[in-house]
Design goal:
This protein is an alpha/beta fold. The protein has a single domain, classed as Nucleotidyltransferase, domain 5. The chain has helices at residues 41-59, 75-94, 104-111, 119-129, 139-163; strands at 2-7, 12-20, 25-34, 63-67, 98-102, 170-171, 174-175. The strands form 2 sheets. Strands 3-2-1-4-5 form a 5-stranded mixed beta sheet. Strands 6-7 form a two-stranded antiparallel ribbon.
């Protein structure tokens, strides 16, 4: 399965594409869409949308995953993040790709095994799971790869559970 992970941000949106069988993962490509200091927010959204369309067109993922909206003390920041997520979701939907959303707790649990892991732990483990010799230069791309790994792992786990006759529901990082 080829999965696109997206780490949304209004100035830097990370993306990563992996190939995975749900157990073994390899990085196909990763990068950052940097909108810089463009003062017009709508221009930043347009740049993100265009770049994501290019990534999707070049790498042809079968599925995509993003982090769910989380609560922020800064309402203005949370609203901007939600708008960037909307642009990402639209680009994925336009391409007809299956989309999944995961909470930060689910992503950390899936990648590190601990839902309260620190950001650096998630990044180190994502690199380890992808067998990368050197860490990625961008935290945003690394986070996007962690989202993709989470999705690939969840899909494989759900398939195995269903094959064994179990109905699996995931809520807040816990399989039930």
């Amino acid at each position: 399965m080829r999965v696109l992970g997206i780490d949304c941000g209004s100035r830097r949106t990370g993306w990563g594409v992996i190939e995975s069988n749900g157990v073994r993962h390899s990085m196909r490509a990763a990068g950052v869409i940097a909108t810089g200091r463009e003062p017009a927010f709508e221009r930043r959204l347009l740049a993100i949308a265009r770049a994501l369309r290019e990534v999707i067109g070049e790498h042809l993922p079968e599925a995509a995953a993003v982090e769910e909206v989380f609560y922020s003390a800064n309402v203005k920041t949370a609203l901007k993040l939600a708008q960037v997520r909307g642009v990402a979701l639209l680009a994925v939907a336009e391409a007809g790709i299956e989309l999944a959303e995961y909470s930060p707790l689910e992503i950390k649990t899936s990648v590190v095994g601990y839902g309260r892991a620190e950001k650096c732990q998630v990044q180190r483990m994502a690199c380890s799971l992808l067998n990368l010799v050197e860490p990625l230069e961008s935290d945003d791309a690394s986070d996007a790869l962690a989202v993709a790994i989470c999705h690939a792992t969840m899909v494989a786990t759900n398939l195995r559970m269903r094959a064994g006759g179990c109905v699996v529901e995931q809520k807040d990082g816990v399989l039930r």
